[in-house]
Inverse folding.
């Protein structure tokens, strides 16, 4: 029973094909509440595909995914429930350019959670405070820097009060001087106890807050372990090689 | 004085007409040569026209028939009702300008238009008074909008929403049993600019939502919906409007039960609406395709439903992108309504033909057609200008 309560995501033998191309080849993963997971691996290894199956932006064709006790299937209501419980942050931010920062954040709480505008705006302002840009509330995304946009995107996801946050390379599209401001927000979020799945190659972030790391290659999990195990004593040749490549610069 | 001078903007910004001329038309020898040659050509082309317009042309055909050209055979007793809705429209326009386009010189120009018309064209006494009153009403609305924008915003939007029903009701009348001022004015009496205007407005307002639905239908995941939309769009776009109008006028009665008739003006409205919707659908589809996949994904990830994603995220962006194309389409609809003259309705072109059929005005085609062309041009250009301003306001193309 306690074990049941602790596990928030269960992934069992998940497969995904794009046409003939076998993108995910039997992924297994258990994520506990408040855990921070870092996923890394070479380009094309299926990291994005995997993280996107968890909120059904991609459909898996075999295996089982259970999020917070709800199994993902073709049932639209289940998909909607799971999407309400999971936030997602994209590499390209994907803010809504025709809406102000405040409207970006309050839209889903008002339309999906049915909060009043006033309540949604109050919470939005608290979140903007938390990510450090309350003064940008009435600007449009196009008027912000990349780092600011990504922080708005994080605030937008948090406004739905999700239990899980998914990040797909949140700092890869940023100029180097802006990476830190976004990572700082993510580190604070991790320390506050949010369950997080993060695809990233920022190994400093992984060292600081990750509980476990998963190395993906060719649609499979090659190796997993705590940051200590992965950095100090990787078991697999492929992991060693990849780490030496990304840590060398 | 020297101090004053430094406070003024740089010389280039203070340029007078002469400076403008020198900079733009006589900047170099080649420019000057081109300007002079150009002027000669314009002079040569327009000389004949201008001489004709000011000496030979018999404009009495226009002044004698002004009323017919404006409203056709619409009964005199009920004309006041047209002025009523016109006043309502002008008031709404003035207030909207006051609220949303406070600095616009164009807005002021538009509001002055009725007064200018009253002075330039030989309207009858009552019409002239009404036109002058329209300008006063418009300016009053404008001032109201400027001083109390927050208070009036909602009422003005509500006013625009009910504008079409009000226009139609006032033009047509409410009930068959009333007489006098409120008596019904049958649609076969509607004509001239009035009919052209009503055909255009109805076609635009109804084909727009229909076009959006068809565009969404074409991208639907339900095969039946998708195929219906594709079939409709391709079928309608494959035939000329005039054939659709003929079908609506001549064939439709064959499908209806004996004794049942549908109003001819209504049939034309439906025909133009259905035609225009197919083109709009393709334009909207173009806008939809320009929205990146990431926008859908972000909306879905937040838990928005498909309909919510469309309404709040995708359509606002897609429609904004295609404003210029949409307005182009609306202008096309406005001009295409002239085809109803061929199926016997008395719109601006239709009424022009009847005017010219009167024995005393034989041979005055040039005057009449120049006049109605001018009307078409002024209104088309107005729409086009308005859309450019709108684009600037919404910042299209700056992203
Ligand atoms: N929609 C699609 N259609 C066909 N193939 C796809 C599609 N999306 C991804 N793929 C393929 O699936 C594989 C995994 O892609 P994925 O985006 O998950 O990789 P990734 O690990 O996130 O790589 P990157 O680090 O470049 O983001 C790649 O070979 C990619 O070409
Ligand atoms: Mg990826």
């Amino acid at each position: 029973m306690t074990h049941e309560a602790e596990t928030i995501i269960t992934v069992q033998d998940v497969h995904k094909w794009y046409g003939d191309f076998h993108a995910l080849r039997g992924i297994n993963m258990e994520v506990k509440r408040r855990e921070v997971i870092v996923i890394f691996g070479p380009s094309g290894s299926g990291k994005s595909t995997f993280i996107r199956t968890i909120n059904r932006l991609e459909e898996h064709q075999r295996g089982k995914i259970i999020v917070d006790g709800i199994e993902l299937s073709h049932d639209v209501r289940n998909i909607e429930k799971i999407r309400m419980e999971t936030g997602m942050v994209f590499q390209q931010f994907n803010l809504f350019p025709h809406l102000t920062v405040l409207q970006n954040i309050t839209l889903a709480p008002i339309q999906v959670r049915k909060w009043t505008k006033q309540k949604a705006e109050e919470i939005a302002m608290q979140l903007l405070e938390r990510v450090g840009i309350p003064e940008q509330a009435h600007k449009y995304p196009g008027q912000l820097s990349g780092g600011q946009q990504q922080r708005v995107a994080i605030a937008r996801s948090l406004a739905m009060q999700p239990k899980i946050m998914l990040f797909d390379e949140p700092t890869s599209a940023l100029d180097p001087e802006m990476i830190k401001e976004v990572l700082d927000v993510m580190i604070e979020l991790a320390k506050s106890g949010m369950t997080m799945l993060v695809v990233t190659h920022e190994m400093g972030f992984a060292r600081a807050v990750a509980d476990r790391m998963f190395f993906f290659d060719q649609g499979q999990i090659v190796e997993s372990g705590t940051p200590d195990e992965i950095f100090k004593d990787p078991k697999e040749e492929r992991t060693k090689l990849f780490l030496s490549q990304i840590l060398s610069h | 004085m020297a101090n004053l001078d430094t406070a003024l903007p740089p010389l280039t910004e203070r340029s007078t007409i002469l400076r403008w001329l020198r900079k733009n038309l006589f900047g170099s020898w080649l420019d000057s040569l081109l300007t002079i040659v150009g002027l000669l050509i314009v002079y040569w082309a327009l000389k004949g026209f201008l001489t004709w317009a000011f000496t030979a042309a018999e404009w009495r055909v226009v002044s004698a028939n002004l009323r017919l050209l404006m409203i056709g055979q619409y009964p005199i007793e009920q004309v006041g009702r047209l002025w009523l809705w016109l006043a309502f429209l002008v008031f709404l326009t003035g207030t909207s300008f006051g609220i949303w386009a406070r600095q616009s010189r164009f807005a002021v120009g538009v509001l002055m238009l009725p007064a200018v018309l009253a002075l330039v064209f030989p309207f009858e006494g009552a019409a002239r008074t009404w036109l002058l009153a329209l300008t006063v009403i418009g300016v009053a609305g404008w001032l109201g909008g400027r001083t109390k924008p927050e208070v009036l915003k909602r009422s003005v939007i509500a006013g625009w929403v009910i504008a079409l029903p009000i226009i139609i009701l006032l033009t047509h009348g409410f009930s068959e049993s009333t007489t006098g001022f409120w008596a019904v004015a049958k649609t076969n009496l509607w004509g001239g600019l009035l009919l052209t205007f009503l055909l255009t407005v109805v076609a635009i307002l109804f084909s727009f939502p229909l076009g959006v639905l068809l565009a969404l239908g074409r991208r639907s995941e339900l095969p039946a919906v998708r195929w219906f939309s594709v079939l409709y769009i391709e079928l309608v776009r494959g035939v000329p409007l005039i054939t659709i109008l003929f079908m609506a006028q001549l064939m439709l009665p064959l499908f209806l039960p004996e004794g049942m008739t549908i109003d001819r003006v209504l049939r034309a409205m439906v025909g133009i609406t259905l035609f225009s919707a197919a083109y709009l659908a393709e334009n909207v589809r173009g806008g939809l395709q320009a929205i990146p996949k990431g926008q859908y994904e972000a909306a879905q990830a937040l838990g928005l439903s498909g309909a919510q994603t469309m309404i709040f995220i995708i359509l606002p962006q897609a429609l904004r992108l295609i404003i210029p194309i949409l307005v182009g389409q609306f202008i096309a609809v406005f001009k295409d309504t002239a085809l109803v003259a061929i199926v016997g309705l008395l719109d601006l072109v239709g009424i022009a033909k009847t005017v010219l059929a009167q024995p005393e005005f034989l041979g005055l085609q040039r005057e009449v057609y120049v006049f109605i062309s001018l009307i078409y041009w002024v209104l088309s250009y107005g729409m086009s200008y308005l859309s450019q301003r709108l684009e600037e306001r919404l910042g299209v193309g700056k992203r």
About this structure: The mean pLDDT of chain A is 94.
